[in-house]
């Protein structure tokens, strides 16, 4: 049935499957009798799919995809991960949390090749042929499979030079008297939505720089330009080194900077994808 639908008729499907068209026709007749519904409308010139047939095709096609994935999974389970792994990654996250361990990762799997596409836009994994994507923050509802790898707070930080010149706010309301570096997205501009336990505030800010480039804002912040909100993974090394300091450390943003890996639909994950996801989860546990 799937072959007839996808190849546009019995003759073409028969050539692909290696059967006579009459064999396929008899099998389709038997399938329709068993289901009690017409799947294909057949004339001497063409075959078209009925409404019931289109719905049945979607479901059966997914099941056949699972069988194919099961074969792949079984064969890969007996061998080392291999082949091309195509990943979509947020640029800053890739530099901070992935790039440093990639050489050792590739050395561990010599038959594996990586193709990394860096960008903050959401790619269509299925249409564009990606094996996985890393996404930061809240996820929209989707048919894709998502695995939460880690959660990170968004914190406020500033350079010691800025704090020496301008002082440090004692409460969120004092942020209005400071230079703040903002991202042009809800809850980050023109108000900062902050949480301290059960207390929540929406504090309006004055921002000399508003940018969607987190790496650029980080450079400006480290240079003393102002106070910046940043996910903990982005500023972890600067905070440890003391080149940035926490501001209002008891407060955090009303935003979960969780790290998810998103996979195409299907229950089976190829070995090449699984080893990458497991390694990323391990690395994030130490950030």
Description:
This protein has 287 residues and is an alpha+beta fold. The chain has eleven helices and 15 strands. The chain has a five-stranded mixed sheet. Strands 12-7-13 form a three-stranded antiparallel sheet. The radius of gyration is 27 Å and the shape is elongated. 24% of the residues are buried.
Per DSSP E runs of 2 or more residues, the count of β-strands stands at 15
Sequence of strands across the biggest β-sheet: 4-3-5-15-6
- Roughly how many Å is the radius of gyration? 27 Å
Which consecutive residue ranges, at least 5 long each, have pLDDT under 50?
none
Summing up helix and strand content along with how strands pair, one would put the structural category as alpha+beta
How many H/I helices?
11
Shape, per Cα inertia axes: elongated
Helix fraction by DSSP (H/I, runs of at least 4): 25-40%
Q: How is the main sheet built? A: 5 strands, mixed
Report strand %.
Answer: 15-25%
On the 0-100 scale, what is the average pLDDT? 90
Oligomer: single chain
Order of helices and strands: HHHEEHEHHEHEEEHEEEEHEHEEEH
- Straight-line N-to-C gap: 51 Å
């Amino acid at each position: 049935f799937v072959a007839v639908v996808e190849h546009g008729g019995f003759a073409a499907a028969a050539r692909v499957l290696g059967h006579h068209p009459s064999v396929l026709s008899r099998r389709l007749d038997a399938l329709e009798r068993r289901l009690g519904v017409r799947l294909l409308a057949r004339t001497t010139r063409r075959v078209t799919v009925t409404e019931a047939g289109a719905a049945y095709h979607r479901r059966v096609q997914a099941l056949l995809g699972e069988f194919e994935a099961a074969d792949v999974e079984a064969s890969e389970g007996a061998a080392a991960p291999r082949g091309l792994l195509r990943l979509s990654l947020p640029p800053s996250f890739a530099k901070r949390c992935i790039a440093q361990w990639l050489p050792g990762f590739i050395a561990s799997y010599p038959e594996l090749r990586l193709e990394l596409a860096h960008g903050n836009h959401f790619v269509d994994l299925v249409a564009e042929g990606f094996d996985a994507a890393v996404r930061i923050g809240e996820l929209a509802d989707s048919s894709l499979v998502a695995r939460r790898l880690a959660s990170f707070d968004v914190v406020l930080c500033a350079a010691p030079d800025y704090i020496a010149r301008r002082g440090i706010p004692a409460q969120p309301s004092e942020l209005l008297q400071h230079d703040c570096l903002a991202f042009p997205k809800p809850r980050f501009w023109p108000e900062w939505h902050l949480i301290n336990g059960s207390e929540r505030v929406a504090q309006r800010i004055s921002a000399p720089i508003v940018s969607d480039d987190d790496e650029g804002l980080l450079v400006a912040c480290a240079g003393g330009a102002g106070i910046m909100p940043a996910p903990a993974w982005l500023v972890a090394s600067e905070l440890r080194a003391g080149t940035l300091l926490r501001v209002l450390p008891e407060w955090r943003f009303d935003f979960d900077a969780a790290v998810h890996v998103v996979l195409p639909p299907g229950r089976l994950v190829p070995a090449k994808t699984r080893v990458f996801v497991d390694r990323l989860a391990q690395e994030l546990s130490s950030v």
